[in-house]
Design a protein that fits this description.
The complex is a heterodimer of chains A (about 140) and B (about 110).
Chain A (H helix, E strand, L loop, with lengths): L3 E9 L5 H17 L3 E17 L2 E13 L3 H12 L3 E8 L1 H20 L3 H5 L3 H12 L1
Antiparallel strand pairs in A: 1-3, 1-4, 2-3
Chain B lengths: L1 H18 L4 H8 L3 H5 L12 H4 L10 H4 L12 H4 L3 H16 L10
The chains are: A alpha+beta (about 140), B mainly alpha (about 110).
Amino acid sequence: MEERQYDLIFICRPDTPEADVDKVIATLEHAATEKGGKVEQVNKWGRRRMAYRVQKLREGYYVYLVVKSSHGEVVKELERRLKVSDAVMKYLTVRLDEELKRQEKLKRHRERRAARRPRKAATATPAPAPGSGEQAAAQA
Amino acid sequence: MADESAPIQVPPSAQSGPSGPGGPRPQGRSGGPGGPAKRGKRSFVRKKKVCRFCVDKADFIDYKKAEILAPFLQERGKILPRRMTGTCARHQRWLTVAIKRAQNIALLPFAAEL
């Protein structure tokens, strides 16, 4: 089965110490590898103002992970752990591989079209040539 | 000045009456292409709106970049319609999905608080 890619964002309470956040990340990584998935990227966005209040708090500590796995069990387990964890207020998992695939496809399509008929790049150089040819024909 | 210009304007309109219903008007218009706009009948030309994402050649709208999505929200947090922003159909479809995801993780508001 093909590999799926997920974005996983979770928000910790702003008063959790950095060590606890790291602990949560470590447990998630461990759980992912145990289930046969993999945490590809960990990106701590840090404290950030939220657009609305969550649990009566205006700020949260955002953490962003990229998870790869071949089946949904990994996500199920990760979400269960996030739900259990006290420090985590909110989380969101988004499956992205299909959208990324679409993005790739569109990009390739665009590049191929650009290669076939180079519009902007080519008009600057070949345009003078046909122009001069016409002039020559007119003169002749 | 104004008194002079008014009598001058009257004769052409009087002439247009007898000359025919269709003929004179276009002639009057052709006299000044800039004229009709000034006269106020079509006082403004609507500027053509262009899809911002098409200009950037975006193949993917990232829900994590709240600052990109924010201009497409009304003050109270509603998603702006296509007719307001000029976004093309395809990108509006992607945009709404991105905005809704961002709302779920508190990057964008569902409804702005007072």
